[in-house]
Amino acid sequence: MTEDSMDRVSAGFNEARRVADALLFEGYVLYPYRASARKNQLRWQFGVLVPPAWQEAHGEHAGQRTECLLEPRRADRILVELRFLQVRRRTVECPSPDGEGWTEVPELDLADRVLVPWDEGEEERIEFQVPLDRLAGEGHTLRFDRPGGVGREPVHDDAGRVVGRLVRRSRPLAGEILLATEPLPGPFGALRLTATVRNVSGWAPDRREHGDREAALPHSLIGAHLLLGLPGGRFLSMTDPPEWAKPAARLCRNEHTWPVLACGEGRDDVLLSSPIILDDHPAVAAESPGPLYDATEIDEILSLRTAALTDREKREARGTDARAAEVIDLVDGMPAEVMERLHGAIRGLREVTGEATGESARRPDPDAAATTPSTGLTLPTGPGLPWWDPAQDGGQSPGQDTVTVDGQRLGVGSRVVLRPGLRRSDAQDIFLAGRAATVEAVLQDFDGETHIAVTVDGDPGIDVRRQQGRFLYFRPDEVDPAEVSTHEPETHEPETHKPEAHEPETHKPEAHKPEGRS
C-alpha cells in the first residue's frame, strides 16, 4: 500500500458520501415537509437497525450482513466507515404563566416559523481501519457506544426576547461491527469479506411501550450503511463479476443491504453497502439542485408543489426541521434555468445507437421525406438519433395489425367491451369494466406482448386522444368483441393508405411499450 492509494481512497470516500447522504436521508421528511402532514407520521423506513428486544417481539431486524469479494493485491488494510442517524426527540416549551419554570406546548408560532415537536436525525460516523491479516479466521469485532443526553436551545422573537426553548433528548445506543475474511479457492488470491453490523443496545420496552415503535426509534441506528475502502486493492462487482468469480458471487449472502462499487466508472477500491438496491457506480444527477429528502417523488414535481405551498405551510415546514427549511429556501430562490433543467435529460443515447461516420452521418436519406407520412413533426437527421423511429419501422403497423379474440379478428375500428383483469388492474378500471370502446390500434411491445389501444364511448376527449395518440391500453384477454359488430376491422393496402387526420399511424405511444392505462 502506498500513500497515493490511501489518498485515492480517502478522496473516494468523500465522493461516495454524496450518494451515501441521499441514502442516509432517504425519506427523512416528505412533502409537504410539515410535521403535521399524515405522510410524516410514520418515519424511518430504510436501514433501520432496532434493539434486539424490539426485533424479537416485532420482526424488524437488529443487524445487516454484507458479503462481497475482493482482491487484496498490494492492500494490507481495509478502511471502514459506518454511518447512521441517531434520533433526537425534540419538544417545545414556553415560560410558565407564573414565570417559574417551563411548560411543554404543542407549537410556538413565530414570525418566520412555527416550531412543533419533531424527531431530528443527528448524523453519526464510526471510522476505523484494520489490517487484512487480522480478519482471517474469527475476524475482528469493533464495539461502539453513543451516549444519550439532553440539550436546550433558547428561542428568541424578532425583538431578541426569549419566548421559548427547544429541548432535545437522545437515548444511549450501542452497536458492533464484525469483519471476517476467508480465501476463495483458485489461483487468484481473492477473499470473501463478511461485514456484519448489529445493534446491541440493551433497551427493552416496558408495559407502556409494548407495541410502540416510536419508543424503540431513539435506541435504533437509522439509515445504517457502510463505506469500505481497499487502498492498493480492488473490490469485485457483485452484479457483474469476472467470469472466474461468478460462482463465488452467487454464494455471497447479503441481508438487508446490498454492496455496489462506489465512485465513478473505473473505480473499484471503494464499496458502498446500501440499505436499498443500487447499480454499481451510483451518482447524484447533475441536474439535482440539492437534497429534497422525499423518497418517492420527482424533483420537478416536488419543486413545483413546494413553491405552491401557502405562507403558513412554509412557516410550519421551516419550523419542522432545519433540512425542511433548506428545501423551502432552495425552491423559493431557484432560478428559472435551474427549474427548467429538472424537466428531463437524455443520457447515453449514443452508447445505445452508436454514431454514424463519414458522409452518412451528415447526409439525410433523400427518399425519407417521400416515404414518411406527414405528422406535423420535423424529425432530426444526422448522428446520435433515437434508436427507434416509428415512422421508419415497417415491422409493425398499429393502423393495420389485428389480433384474434374469441375467434373474431379485431383491428382499427372494431367494437369491444372492456373486461379489465382483476390482478393487474389500475384503480380507474372499476369505472371502465363493462364499458363499450373502439379499437384505435393493435400494438406489440418489445417483449412480444400484444396490447389493444382503445377510446371509450362517451369520452368527451376522444378527438384530443386521437390527435395526440394517447389511448387506454388493454391486453387481448381484457376485452370481449362486441356482440353486434357493424363492420369488419379496417384494412388498408400500404400503397394507397392515406391516413385520416386523427389517425396516429406513426405514433407508437411511449416508444411502443405502454405503461399503465394512460
Number of strands: 22
How large is the count of helical segments? 13
Helix-strand makeup class: alpha+beta
Shape: globular
Mean pLDDT: 83
Distance between the termini: 57 Å
Low-confidence stretches: 350-379, 485-518
Largest sheet: 8 strands, antiparallel
What's the alpha carbon Rg, rounded to whole Å?
30 Å
The domain tally reads 2
The helix content, as a percent range, equals 10-25%
Task: Classify the beta-strand content into a percent band.
Answer: 25-35%
Q: How would you describe the overall organization of this protein?
A:
The two termini are 57 Å apart. By secondary structure, the chain is α+β, with helices and mostly antiparallel strands. It is 19% helix and 28% strand. α5 (299-307) packs across α7 (322-332) and α6 crosses α7. A hairpin with a 5-residue loop joins β19 and β20 (450-456). It has 2 domains: 3-204 and 212-340, no CATH class; 403-512, SH3 type barrels. The protein has helices at 3-24, 52-58, 213-216, 246-251, 299-307, 311-320, 322-332, 336-341, 349-353, 368-371, 429-432, 462-468, 509-512, and strands at 63-71, 77-95, 102-105, 108-109, 114-115, 118-131, 140-146, 149-156, 162-170, 173-183, 191-199, 222-229, 234-235, 258-261, 270-274, 403-405, 408-410, 415-418, 436-444, 450-456, 472-474, 479-481. The strands form 5 sheets. Strands 2, 3, 6, 8, 9, 12, 14 and 15 form an 8-stranded antiparallel β-sheet that branches. A 5-stranded antiparallel β-sheet has the order 7-10-11-1-13, with no helix packed on it.
